[in-house]
Amino acid sequence: MSRRPDVAVIGGGVIGLAVAWRCAQRGLDVHVFHEEIPGTASAVAPGMLAPVSEADFPDPALLTFAHEARRAWPAFAAELAAASGTDLGYATDGLLLVAHGVEDRERVAAMYGFREGYDVPPKSLDADELRAREPLLSAACEGGGFATEDHHVDAQRVRAALRAAGEALGVRYVEQRVRSLDEVSAESVLVATGAWSPDLHDWPVTPVRGQVVLLRDPAKGPGLRHGIRAVVRGEPVYLAGRHGHGTIVAATLDHAGFDARSSARDTDALLRKAVALVPALAGHEVAETRVGLRPDTPDHLPLMGPVPGRPGTWVCTGHYRHGYLLAPVAADLMTASMLDGGDGIPAAFAPQRFRTTKESASR
């Protein structure tokens, strides 16, 4: 019989892996239980580290937390790259905010307003200035801005690096889907299973489906200079270069349960927006389509902290589309809570803010 670990992490997404790495750095015996299920959000994420231009639900607690996380990313990326020997594709050269048409200007301007009091405001750019920074942009683009504080990273490299860094410290990875908390025994147990968290406890976490498309340039021409967060005919889209001659196009958003199949409809919608912004993408090949199921909660805030009524068990889920952005700070706070009794997790994220079905029935 194998020895009972100090820490068991259920879930091998970016936050689960980051917590496992941090716990292993403390010299603890850590096991990660994970089965790669179609729709795993961390396997699909485009890697935006943009706390405001991605702020669909600009709650003050989440915005503050997101900006703290973004500020933590440079040191986190340097430490992880050194520990894993991996180039994370971490880019700090800013993000272009683009209004494709006149009708899209208001939506892009709203991204500016959320930033007030948090970091350097985006620099407003007219159409010519936008194309000077990104020559591949369509001449039809109306204008926008340049957000120096928004970064991006190759999400899949980060996830691989976290696993490698953990392995170097003795983290054991168990290819197993845990279907009950009673299946796992450890001094401290963390549930970080994203949209599947309700399988283990009665939390109100629901999947939000998002599809991404990866394009390849057969001519191996020049790629995008910057990540682009744009609005095209009222709909958001994100573009970023990948692996030299690739471009990732993200992402759709719909509530379709646990359906993780890619669709021609969503692929077409993403490609239409991408080509409207960057006409040269029309000649690129569709290399891959992926679907991720992002974990959301009724108030769109994460669930982070000890699980009420279950000593020795913690939860860290519900990060929606911000998992990679929030990972450095979320991992540090969860590790401190689990190992030291730390109380730095924002009160707004406490799991007990939602009554479970059992709790409601007992009243």
Question: Which terms would index this structure?
Answer:
single chain; 363 residues; alpha/beta; FAD/NAD(P)-binding domain; D-Amino Acid Oxidase, Chain A, domain 2; 2 domains; 8-stranded mixed β-sheet; 29% helix; globular
Structure description:
- Helix content is 29%, strand content 23%.
- With 363 residues, the chain is an alpha/beta fold.
- It folds into two domains: 7-83 and 154-205 and 298-361, FAD/NAD(P)-binding domain, CATH 3.50.50; 95-149 and 207-296, D-Amino Acid Oxidase, subunit A, domain 2 (D-Amino Acid Oxidase, Chain A, domain 2, 2-Layer Sandwich).
- The strands form three sheets. An eight-stranded mixed β-sheet has the order 5-6-4-11-12-13-10-14, sandwiched between helices.
- The chain is globular.
What is the CATH domain class of the largest domain? Answer: Alpha Beta
Largest sheet: 8 strands, mixed
At CATH level 3, the topology of the largest domain is: FAD/NAD(P)-binding domain
Q: How many beta-strand elements?
A: 16
Report the total helices.
8
Uncertain runs are 357-363
Derived structural class: alpha/beta
Strand content: 15-25%
User: What is the CATH superfamily of the largest domain?
Assistant: FAD/NAD(P)-binding domain
CA-atom Rg in angstroms: 20 Å
The geometry reads as globular
Number of domains: 2
**Could you give the order of strands across the largest sheet?**
5-6-4-11-12-13-10-14
